[in-house]
Design brief:
Length: 138
C-alpha cells in the first residue's frame, strides 16, 4: 500500500523532491478555480444554486443536510473557499470554521434570487478563470 503523502522525486524516485505546480498566476489576488459548497436542505433551492454556479465556472459541492456538510469539510482534499448556507444553519458555522478557518460563509434566505447570490459569490471570489482551451484537431 503506498504512503498517504508520497513525495514525488525527479529521476524515477531518486533525487530531490519536486514541489507541486503553483496553479495561481504570479501576483494573483483571487482564486482561479474556487470551490463553493452549497449547503441547503431545500432541493429546489440547492439545485438552482448549484446549476447557476456551475454554469458560471465554479467548482461546486453540494450538501442536503448537516452531516453531509461536515463530511465535505472534513474529507475534501482541496480548499473550500465559500459555503452558501441556509440562514437557519448560522449557529453551526463556528464548528465548520474549526476545521477550515479560511472558509468564508454567505447565508442564503428564501426566496432565493440566484443572480443576487452569484453576484455576491463573484464579489467575494471573483469570476473563475476558464480552463485553457484545447487545440483543435484537424
Amino acid at each position: 500500500m503506498p504512503p498517504e503523502n508520497p513525495v514525488r522525486q525527479k529521476g524515477g524516485g531518486t533525487g530531490q523532491p519536486v514541489d507541486p505546480p503553483n496553479l495561481r498566476s504570479p501576483g494573483a489576488s483571487r482564486v482561479d478555480y474556487p470551490t463553493v459548497l452549497v449547503a441547503h436542505d431545500d432541493e429546489d433551492v440547492r439545485s438552482t444554486l448549484v446549476d447557476c454556479l456551475q454554469r458560471s465556472g465554479f467548482h461546486v459541492l453540494e450538501a442536503d443536510d448537516w452531516a453531509h456538510v461536515l463530511y465535505w469539510v472534513r474529507v475534501h482534499s482541496r480548499p473550500i473557499h465559500l459555503v452558501l448556507a441556509d440562514v437557519s444553519k448560522a449557529e453551526l458555522m463556528p464548528k465548520l470554521k474549526t476545521h477550515r478557518p479560511e472558509m468564508q460563509v454567505v447565508f442564503v434566505k428564501e426566496p432565493v434570487d440566484a443572480d443576487e447570490v452569484l453576484a455576491k459569490v463573484r464579489q467575494i471570489l471573483g469570476s473563475p478563470t476558464p480552463p485553457p482551451s484545447l487545440p483543435s484537431i484537424r
